[in-house]
Write a structure and sequence with these properties.
By secondary structure, this protein is an alpha+beta fold. Helices cover 63% and strands 7% of the residues. The protein contains 10 helices and 4 strands, in the order H-H-H-H-H-H-E-H-E-E-E-H-H-H. Helix 3 packs antiparallel against helix 4 (106-127) and helix 8 (253-278) packs antiparallel against helix 10. The termini are far apart.
């Protein structure tokens, strides 16, 4: 507010990626639902915690976006919608919904599809003031659409009756999402493959909502999950609201040997490369002194690492 906006190429690219994200999510939802799908009424009280969580976040987003728009704070409104689209809908719920859509409960599958369409429609209507052409195009692809998005009413926030138990389960949903992210970060920091199987122990006084372990299995590639009231695990501990997670990395002798052989082969190849460069008179005489010294240091470090492993 109160200042001109400079043209910045990175912002154009970021906006393009954002709209592309919405476009691809719309394609996915419409493909999942199929051409002849008729949305059904959503009974919030009968939903699983994952679905309750995304609907409450959708309602909060509508409220904050509408409030910002009423105050002419268009940048803030866009920011609230952006965060919901990226973090809550596309990166999280679209992935979680795949578990429900692969289940055997056909009636609940219809409910999940109806929720996906409901959220997608709200996103399209809210993005319309910022991106009218894409908004109109996506809207006309929705089932039961009007002649134009201009004939639609703006989304209204729904006040859901969550209740005490509901708040507890929504807290567990946040724990689940944070656990999955922590496990992924653990694998990255330890240079493990994304699908590397680990054993997890969840310590909690009360068992989490039904399906909690299924989601954790699916998105963390768990080898085994144990839920206990009191844990004596020596694994790496992560603390959450009302529960703790222990990551136990059980590596077999074969896996240890395979990793050791791989590390040895890599270090030997690096040593051979370094020695080849340093034994080349042209490289030593013509390359910058800093580069030559760096290669000598690398060679010494790799030889020391190889001696430790062998």
């Amino acid at each position: 507010p109160g200042q001109d906006i400079r043209y910045i190429e990175e912002k154009v690219s970021s906006a393009s990626n954002y709209l592309n994200k919405i476009w691809n999510s719309a394609r996915y939802v419409l493909d999942v639902c199929g051409e002849n799908f008729e949305p059904i009424d959503i009974d919030f009280d009968k939903l699983e915690p994952i679905e309750k969580d995304i609907l409450t976040k959708m309602s909060l987003t509508i409220k904050t976006v509408s409030s910002s728009m009423d105050k002419y704070e268009y940048s803030m409104a866009s920011s609230h919608l952006y965060n919901f689209v990226y973090d809550d809908f596309c990166s999280t719920y679209l992935e979680m919904s795949k578990v429900s859509l692969q289940g055997n409960n056909e009636e609940y599958k219809k409910t999940v599809k109806s929720i996906l369409l409901y959220i997608l429609k709200n996103i399209i209507i809210m993005i319309y003031p910022y991106a009218p052409f894409i908004g109109e195009e996506l809207y006309l692809a929705l089932p039961n659409h009007k002649k134009s998005i201009m004939l639609e009413t703006y989304p209204e926030a729904i006040k859901y009756n969550v209740g005490l138990e509901g708040f507890k389960s929504l807290s567990e949903v946040e724990n689940l999402y944070t656990m999955i992210q922590d496990i992924r970060n653990y694998k990255v920091s330890n240079k493990l493959a994304p699908n590397y199987k680990l054993r997890f122990v969840i310590e909690t006084k009360e068992k989490p909502f039904n399906g909690f372990e299924n989601y954790l299995f699916r998105f963390s590639f768990a080898k085994e999950i144990e839920v206990v009231s009191e844990s004596k695990s020596n694994g790496i501990k992560y603390v959450y609201s009302e529960m703790n997670l222990y990551i136990e990395d059980e590596i077999s002798e074969d896996e240890i040997k395979a990793k050791k052989d791989k590390d040895i082969a890599f270090l030997k190849a690096e040593i051979a490369r370094g020695e080849g460069m340093l034994n080349n008179p042209n490289f030593v005489s013509k390359a910058p002194k800093e580069k030559v010294e760096l290669e000598r240091k690398k060679l010494a470090d790799n030889k020391a690492k190889l001696a430790q492993i062998e």
